[in-house]
Fold this protein.
Amino acid sequence: MNKQQQQTRTAIIIGAGLVGSLWAVYLSKAGYAVTIYERRKDLRKTKMSAGRSINLAMSYRGWKGLDDVGVGDDIRKIAIPMYGRTMHYLDNSTSFQPYGNNNQAIYSVARGAINQQLMDIAESHTHTQIHFDEECIDVDLEGGKAVFRNTQTDAITTAEAEVVFGTDGAFSAVRYQALQKLDRFNYSQTYIEDGYREILLPANPDGSYKMAKETLHIWPRGRFMLIALPNFDGSFTCTLFMPFDNHKYCFNNLKTKQQVDDFFEDLFPDFYRMMPNVADEWENHPLSSLAIIRCFPWTHSKVALVGDAAHATVPFFGQGMNCGFEDCSVLWELMQKHDHNWAAIFKEYEVLRKPNGDAVQDLSLKNYLVMRDKVADPDFLLTQKIERRINYLYPESYFPLYTMVSFTNIAYTTALEKGEAQEAMMRQLIRKNHLTPDTDEATIDRIIHEFMKTNSSSK
Amino acid sequence: MNKQQQQTRTAIIIGAGLVGSLWAVYLSKAGYAVTIYERRKDLRKTKMSAGRSINLAMSYRGWKGLDDVGVGDDIRKIAIPMYGRTMHYLDNSTSFQPYGNNNQAIYSVARGAINQQLMDIAESHTHTQIHFDEECIDVDLEGGKAVFRNTQTDAITTAEAEVVFGTDGAFSAVRYQALQKLDRFNYSQTYIEDGYREILLPANPDGSYKMAKETLHIWPRGRFMLIALPNFDGSFTCTLFMPFDNHKYCFNNLKTKQQVDDFFEDLFPDFYRMMPNVADEWENHPLSSLAIIRCFPWTHSKVALVGDAAHATVPFFGQGMNCGFEDCSVLWELMQKHDHNWAAIFKEYEVLRKPNGDAVQDLSLKNYLVMRDKVADPDFLLTQKIERRINYLYPESYFPLYTMVSFTNIAYTTALEKGEAQEAMMRQLIRKNHLTPDTDEATIDRIIHEFMKTNSSSK
């Protein structure tokens, strides 16, 4: 791009969440004057609403999205590594399972903190402005125009730019007001049977952590689970995922304080000892639902959906934000490739990313079963251990599913497909060789070397 | 119900289409004062819009829905039986395949004509009123209230009743304004690759039909098809179903008059001879899209969706109206069973009907492949012939898929499941016994008797 063109291009971003704020940084660097419109208040000036702290797990794709535009290190300062899962069993025993080899980790970050940081970075670019309290009430796809109503003053603003991005999340107004009105727009919102409620496990009085810090804690209970992610202040953000109803253990059966108290005491005894007042805190935290949202097309004329607005997922692979940041990396590459020709960029973007949006949703649904159930299964843990070992011995040739998703940017579609094939291969390997959790490492290594020889020669 | 209660109950129906009008008759007979609100003009007072004549195929479930409330005979007067399919091949040859045994038929009815008739019947009940030009703009699910804006005067009306029904079709305002705003409401709209365009093939100058009358005409062309249903005036309503784009033969490749002319001359030579001016008529008829719409729940508090509003389907099994009328039969039975306790009726209705709504959509999608492709395949025709023969010899024990769907009220879910199992059995039977279109009837009968013996003894 010529220097003269700098900042003469214009873009509107609707939604100043994680993806919108990051994408503004990209566009600013690419020479766009960016205006962001956000329905909510400036969260840097308001107190976070209770019970919605929400921790996210940043992994490779997220970091890549940040690093590609040079802001990864700012975020690393507010991220806590989690090197594996710590499972908490009913008998109060625990076990630890690393996520990968060589200290590979995913990172706990507070949604509020990262969003504030990204908004600050976006606004540090002279030509980026964020307007808050602006609700999008209409979008003109062909004209690149959007209409906003200020939630405080009711004032109506119409904005126009060369290109408009809807980064306004699962219940995107851009999608609802404009794309959804197109003929032949495919759309689905599918709620799972389960909801979630967050609970904050506070730090010890001296500020220290009540459990191991650099790990993701899981209490796998078959049909439901509790998880905990560390915060900087010594607390953990805990989330209980469970069916709304129709099960022995479900939110509908936890109506009274006594029921909540009994439930935690019986099902999560070690957690209950750390937080005997859990039942007092219960009602302060909202019960939320969980949905998969799919749609197509993601773009039309001058407008594109990015992140959750295009492909909101359930959170069980920790990939929602990561996938949204990867959308930014991909759009950025396409912007170079097609030299700001948005018609060409959008066409390739949606064809490339839609299957990956679907795949990350499928992976997320599958991983709920892993987290709440399989991680308590010795056979599954053995499989994971063997796969991690193969990856250690053949780091260039074999990637376990979790590794593909969290520690590479292999397409989600490939990860899903390969992951299923590998799962079948591992089952066979274990059965054929009568492997058990007690099989010694030398034997396992020998079998792995044989397996990899056969496997690579058969290609 | 006590006589005193008559007409003291109240119901609102939103949408005076086929299902809404019929359901009003049921409710009137059950003692409800019914008010219907319809967004469109009274079609009895307006000319039908061009190119949207739309013929429907009434089959068993539709007739049952009408007969259960005693109005079937009124509709029989405006229905033309179609005893089978007439396939038109590229070489101008044709073949006829009956739909069933013993003159079983589906019936061609004009949507406009049946709708007018049902509105007349509904209004003949003293306590039923239809208000036209009333667009539903809000629904209060708990309160049983609905708000309407008159499209002519902009006047706002709020109506209230014990129970409210949304029979307002695929793009239901009741669903959109109210149910879709509920947390955890599942919803999907899925457009297929194909669209359709209607063409009217006029009668001969003397009013006679240009093709055989009492049959459904199909020009199966693999990836697309033309069909024709007879009208009373000697004309046929013809519909071309075809992909919008991305195929050799698609609507996007029929842009000029010359292209349309060539297309019909090359692909439907016998049709082209009957209607050489088809290209002149082309632009007068809109191109329409085709979608499957799924949602759940169908009911909430005092409000229920019925017919297309709950389960709009693609039209390839001719079951959209039939399934909607069956909804009425089922609601009617549940109304007796639960003695007007709508909470209980709605609960059972949606649990009972939702799987059938899904199944009729799956069946419809599968039958597109049958109509546009398989009916030109000798193996498929042989299968159908054998199945029809089994049904003839064992009329109580074996129902081909088409028979289950069109000539019984076996649950759509059962039809779908059994149909798939039977398809596999038939393939095996033909292969094992080396049956061909030329196999003589005595041999076929012998094999059928063996098959049924084995089949029934293995149960």
Notes: The first helix of chain A runs from residue 18 to 29. Residues 363 and 416 of chain A are 6 Å apart (CA to CA).
